[in-house]
Design brief:
With 165 residues, this protein is α+β, with helices and mostly antiparallel strands. The protein contains four helices and seven strands; from the N terminus they run H-H-H-E-E-H-E-E-E-E-E.
């Protein structure tokens, strides 16, 4: 008489699947980013605030110091730009009277920072941009990735990926 192991195999797979699903659900409720390097996380969070304090205050001179001369800025709404075009874009935003109240705010619980040994760090998160248009407050929520390089004791962004426009 030949034994069939298929029912046992399916039962075993069903048990494993049930365990995986319950583990995933339990951990999804507790999911909160825990940085590998707490000091690096604080440093990059600080650099993020320096960058966007300058952005929110239309301080192009500070913005210029935070980007590497070889920056590549990837934007799903505008394409790819280098340093000069990126700075020209910021200048245009800062001079645009219709965007005079444009503000960026980091959604703090979304911030993730990963060390990149020998180079710097990768920052990922979500931020909101608000401005008034035709008397209405407009809020845009977008995701971003910044690649930060620590060179000559200075942090500079070398790559930006900005999506959700």
């Amino acid at each position: 008489m030949k034994k069939s192991y298929k029912p046992l195999l399916f039962t075993g797979l069903a048990v494993i699947l049930a365990i995986c699903i319950s583990y995933t659900k339990a951990n999804a409720q507790d999911a909160h980013f825990k940085p590998k390097d707490a000091q690096l996380y604080k440093t990059i969070a600080h650099m993020d605030s320096v960058m966007f304090d300058a952005f929110n205050n239309h301080n192009l001179e500070v913005m210029k110091t935070l980007f590497s001369p070889d920056v590549e800025f990837y934007n799903d709404g505008k394409g790819v730009t280098g340093y000069e075009a990126t700075m020209a874009g910021f200048k245009g935003i800062f001079e645009n009277k219709q965007a005079s109240d444009l503000k960026r705010e980091l959604i703090k619980e979304s911030l993730e920072v990963y060390p990149m040994p020998g180079f710097g760090a990768i920052e990922m998160g979500t931020h909101s941009f608000t401005h008034t248009e035709n008397g209405q407050k407009i809020i845009g929520i977008m995701k971003f990735v910044h690649v930060w390089q620590l060179k000559d004791n200075q942090w500079k962004v070398t790559r930006v990926v900005s999506v959700g426009h």
